[in-house]
Predict the 3D structure of the following.
Amino acid sequence: MVVGGYEPDVHTYTVLVNSLSIFGKTNVAIGLLKGMVERDSDPDTVTYIIIIGALCKDKLVVEALDLFSQMRNKGILTNVITYNSLIHGLCKLGKRNQALALLNEMVKHNISPDFYTFSILIDILCKEGMVSEAQNTFKILIQRGLEPNVVTYNSLIDGLCISDQWKEALALLKNMVGRNISSNVFTFNKLINTLCKKGLVSNAQIIIRIMIQIGLWQVGWPRIAKELFKNMCSHGPQPNITTYRILLDGLCKQGDLDEALTLFKTMEKSQFKLDNVIYTILIDGLFKAGKFNDAKELFSRLSENGLQPDFFMYGTIIKGLCKEGLLNEAYKVFSEMKEGGCLPNSCCYNVIVQGFLRHKDVPRASQLIDEIFINDSLRMTQLLNWYYFYCTVAISF
């Protein structure tokens, strides 16, 4: 372009500087910046922002600050993005006092902090042990209509845990979940570890239940749960039936059935009396893992432990058998349920009728629909919708 006699404008230079910065060629970008000055094509705010940001990412904060000084000396306007890059860069190098000084300078120049600035500030304050100031900053962030993200929450929760304010940390976690802000394993792990060290295992169990509810076991459940369980076994208080139940549920949902079965055997040997909830959790997990023979065998052992299946247990095994296409066995269990005095509710009818319809066994589905017709008009409507669908659409294929 230059050889052809065309002089690049500021926009062209800026595009090139941005591309070089993205590909990690920061030194080349700086050389290009110097070339702009030599060619009387003065860099603008955007050009400087790009290079300052790239230098900070490369931890070349001294060079970034020099460039920042040049920028101001030339009368080029600075903005919140420039300050954020420098403040963040200084924080990563542990130069938090310089970062705070730069933040104060920014405010003096009437440049309003944005969400990112507040997040950096909260992190700095927490790491400096100034947790009450961090909490106040967090409140200001909310008051300004800015929405904190998981990083902001993590910084403050970490600071509260370090300063022994676990109640405030727990309240903040509940606030975070209530706002539907995606959390990560760090958020929970920090608080669980703090609670366990203080012997507040029941509170740690609350956190784990929240993890289960929002599906976080998929990325961090096994390690955290096992650490908690091991900690309890070694240092107390000893795990109770609720602890075992939570751990078993997490392992089953994770699909770690071998470990779930090992835990179940440990529970059988313990002093705890196993209940229907424990059996239902494991039977459901076995069916979902395709281990339906193990699930059936476990179901058959209920009476040995003096237990009688309830609605939830029957519903779980009927649903599992129907999904495996074992309709005769499902119907047998359904009949045993009625004969044993545990009259099927509408949910149990719904499960088995849909099972028959999915496998195009319309006669038996019709028979069951007749049974429920008088008892539950709402469920009847739902079942008739299924019946209509399979009789008019699915059967035709």
Observations:
- Residues 345-397 form one domain.
- The chain has a mean pLDDT of 78.
- The two ends are 65 Å apart (CA to CA).
- The chain is about 75% helix and 0% strand.
